[in-house]
Amino acid sequence: MNVNGQRYRTIWVADDGRTVEIIDQTRFPHTFETISLESLEAAAHAIRVMQVRGAPLIGATAAYGIALAMRADASDEALMMACSTLLETRPTAVNLRWALDLMRKALLPLPPEAREAVAYKLANEVCDEDIAINMSIGLHGSEIIANIARTKKPGESVNVLTHCNAGWLATVDWGTATAPIYMAHDGGIPVHVWVDETRPRNQGAFLTAWELGQHGVPHTVIVDNAGGHLMQNGEVDLVIVGTDRTTAHGDVCNKIGTYLKALAARDCGIPFYVALPSPTIDFTLSDGLRQIPIEERGGEEVSRITGRTRSGAIETIDIVADKSPVANPAFDVTPARLVTGLITERGVLEPNQQAIASAFPERISSAA
Ligand code: MRU
Question: Angle at CA 285, nearest 5°, toward 171 and 328?
Answer without folding.
Answer: 60
